[in-house]
Amino acid sequence: GAVVSQHPSRVICKSGTSVKIECRSLDFQATTMFWYRQFPKQSLMLMATSNEGSKATYEQGVEKDKFLINHASLTLSTLTVTSAHPEDSSFYICSARLWGNTEAFFGQGTRLTVV
Amino acid sequence: EDKVVQSPLSLVVHEGDTVTLNCSYEVTNFRSLLWYKQEKKAPTFLFMLTSSGIEKKSGRLSSILDKKELSSILNITATQTGDSAIYLCAVVRHFTGNQFYFGTGTSLTVIP
């Protein structure tokens, strides 16, 4: 299957700082990437959908100014958590999809801890 | 409002048991339903179901979709400790950029 690389896998940051998470499709071009958030023992919650070259579409309740998404190329999408707070601590995971293909491929996730 | 619900939320079984996990959905413009297994990190793909009544099988795992009942089941026979994981079902809708809507997940623990 296709490979999606997410970096970093783990990050600890101080309150008030910003953190950038990268999601790369390594062997295919991803027209669409999705960003999810997962709390312990809970399912994945879709945060936003990003399409290459256009603005991301955010799910209801997700602050677009807080979670900045950039999908500048067909192989890279970034999620920046701005002015992070302890309640932003969570597991963030991206997935990428090939055009016309329903199946999505997941990155390994990023464990964010804000102290 | 669209929703995807899985049951049970958690399950503890002994090795060798057979388990059945359920996923029910209420979504508009249903396209397909996918099952994933999540251990510590990224979910790994198990099955994609589009047509009703056709069982998909992979080793000890099998799954089937019932569009009339708006549900799917995932069966695991002869469970092993390595089957311990969270099992997620996701529904894909037409006309939404093929976004995935995940269910609540079922946490399966297999005891030796």
How would you describe this protein?
The complex is a heterodimer of chains A (115) and B (112). Chain A has strands at 4-7, 10-13, 19-25, 32-38, 44-51, 57-58, 67-73, 76-81, 90-97, 104-106, 110-114. Chain A has 115 residues and is mainly beta. In chain A, the strands form two sheets. In chain A, strands 2, 4, 5, 6, 9, 10 and 11 form a seven-stranded mixed sheet that branches. Chain A has a four-stranded antiparallel sheet with strand order 1-3-8-7, with no helix packed on it. In chain A, strand 7 and strand 8 form a beta hairpin. Chain A starts with a strand and ends with a strand. The mean pLDDT of chain A is 89. Chain B has strands spanning 3-7, 10-14, 19-26, 30-38, 44-49, 56-58, 61-66, 71-76, 85-93, 100-102, 106-111. In chain B, strands 2, 4, 5, 9, 10 and 11 form a six-stranded mixed sheet that branches. Chain B has a five-stranded antiparallel sheet with strand order 1-3-8-7-6, with no helix packed on it. The termini of chain B are far apart. Chain A binds chain B through residues 1, 4, 6, 9, 32, 34, 36, 41-46, 49, 51, 57, 93, 95, 97, 102-109, and chain B through 6, 31-32, 34, 41-45, 48, 86, 88, 92, 97-105, 107.
